[in-house]
Amino acid sequence: MLREIGLYLDMQGVAFKPRAYEKAAEAVASLTEEAGDIYSRGGLRALEEIPGVGASIAEKIEELLTTGTCAEHVALRKKTPVNLSELSRVEGLGPKKIKTLYQKLRVKDLADLEAAAKKGAIAKLEGFGKKSEENIKKSLEFAKHAGDRVMLGLAMPEIRMYEARLRKLPAVARLVVAGSVRRRKETIGDVDLLAVSKKPQQVMDAFVAMPEVVSVHAKGETKSAVKVVSGLNIDLRVVPESSYGAALNYFTGSKDHNVALRQIAMNKGLKLNEYGLWKGKKQVAGKTEEELYKALGMHYIEPELREHTGEIKAALRPIQDIQGRPEEFEGRQAQGKRPGLPTLIGYKDLRGDLQVQTDWTDGKGSIEAMARAAREAGLEYIAITDHSKRLAMTHGLDEKRIIQQMAEIARVNKRLQGSGLRFRVLSGSECDILKDGALDLPDNILAKLDVVGASVHSYFNLPKAEQTKRIMRAMDNPHVDIIFHPTGRIIGKRPPYEVDIPALITHAKNTGTILEIDALPDRLDLKDDYIRMAIKGGVKLAIDSDAHAPSHFSVLEYGIAQARRGWAEKKDIINAWPLEKMKGFLKK
DNA sequence: GCCGTTTTCGGCCCGACTGTTTTCAGTCG
Fold it and tell me: Is A267 (CB) below 7 Å from strand B?
């Protein structure tokens, strides 16, 4: 509703308000708590705490929550009754053009638009033309099947392929991936590539001529945009070497992060754009990102943190760089309110993996095959955590078979040692949490295992309080070390079950239970906000592959990215620790 | 309509590309 009000106001040429509504809409969409819960907890005042939401928008949210509708939104829609979310998905259609199409041709939705385009009516409109009509026809096809985002882990191999290929062009001096891919978002909308070249035209030509390109959205001297056969949209921008850092920063985003940097630049009497940081006509910085942040009086900020969620403040350098306002800085220092930036866990810091399935249940590799693959992937230990009997469809292990499996794990360890490999396989379980919070295997069995993970695979629809109690009871079990994929979501398929995350975090802390970051590209569960919350609450985490085949250890990269987006350090991730230290932290 | 390392009033990020236009508006990121 907020987004639509913004679009409608934009349509009418109202200044500034559209951005205010858009920002508020984004803020509400990215809340970790339901707006309704916030309101029933703290009323209007609590809503106003949401960044970008002030008195007026808070009232509109209240109105929507209590009456189910909002008078201003209804009035605006009455004036221009169009399906905004549908029409604005069409490439090149913004609020102004949507308005013209409605006023002149009564276009209300995609079906109307298609009919008008087929009749040739659009080409005759002022401000449109033959070409506009053609473009609308083309993008109608894609708009129909939504502009869905794609999961990072699925797109990454393809992105790396394009990156490697374009990098080899003779005219290309450098080429990197920027945008949401560089920030390692869970899902990405498009791919932003940045190149340095003295012959941009050659780079543009080669880019749009790639065999996978199915359509060219734009082609200029330094910027082109294409769609490739897989459906990915790829943008390529070329800048001179002297602007590389500023351009990389600019195209990495996020938008909010960039806007904040520009404001800092303005406050210093400087101007920041994709070509550099400028004092008048003189470039002060821009060749590298490091020098750019430094010139702004900031520490370097890792791409995964650039979401304007506190990293800017944390990166601002101490007093010597903030000239003329010593008293303010000292005040803050005294209050200890500069949290500082975290030293993020590195992409090579994992030593183990605590959730691995084998061919004893629904996995595709033997215990030994999984162990050898994990070692190839750079790990020193894994826990075998096959499903428990409750998950009958996976042939889940009962008491008898899990005892047999423990014996097999011991034999595998011996064989590995015999062949001189320094690698340890731990016994474990992904034990089902039953409806009432009891576990699917008896305590005397769980006590024998090295690592016990517990997870929810049934009754996703329990009321929030009951679901929370269920998982808390599992944490109370003296053998349950880790809660696997704690919210149960599958990106693009299944929402998380209703559960009180802050309560789970507190209970995890009190019971010494670890929470998992499942690295599967469509799980990434916990998500970044909850990771930050857990760390703040003093809870330790584990990054696991949830591997079901030897090749699956490669997904750990996405789990690490997720952890980094949640501000996690090495000390927060127990499987980044040496084996003995990690084992020492588990419940007895 | 929102917000405050410049402000409670007066600002609000910035540039490339397209398609229409004959100097620019709209869209996009």
Answer: yes
